[in-house]
């Protein structure tokens, strides 16, 4: 559900004249405005030596149980590079040694009846050693799947589905 379904009172003057217009809320009483932007998120493409891609099984909603790429939201004042290193350490206990920007896709992420707009930035990552792999946080398990054999219909989030399809097309083994 979009925020406009929840918010109708102006947070500054309190009048019920706060409405959404394309990219922002605006109050017709006091002119206070509030922009709604996409949140930056990061996702990692990590391959093993056999050319298989690491996919995570989502532990929580939204899309619990579906396949996903590991990653998460970028914190305020954090770089995308640091965010992907932090998330991969937290979720998989892996240490990223190098990364290369791949692509980005927008998404709508619905959590507790609220739609969050994201821009998912994807990086092809190399890690120190896959022997360190230890699943925790919001991942329930990981699977390595040969790139061309990944069934993208098993991927829940639409942006991640598009990212993996794009990677499949560009991948040469
Ligand atoms: Zn107002």
UniProtKB/TrEMBL annotation:
Identify the keywords attached in UniProt to this record, alphabetized. Hydrolase
The family database entries (InterPro entries) matched by this protein are listed as:
NUDIX_hydrolase-like_dom_sf, NUDIX_hydrolase_CS, NUDIX_hydrolase_dom
List the signal peptide residues.
none
Q: Which SUPFAM superfamilies match?
A: Nudix
GO molecular function annotations of the record: hydrolase activity
Give yes or no: UniProt keyword Hydrolase. Answer: yes
Q: Domain (Nudix hydrolase): give its ranges.
A: 37-170
What PANTHER family does the entry give? ADP-RIBOSE PYROPHOSPHATASE, DIHYDRONEOPTERIN TRIPHOSPHATE DIPHOSPHATASE
Write down what this protein is called: NUDIX domain-containing protein
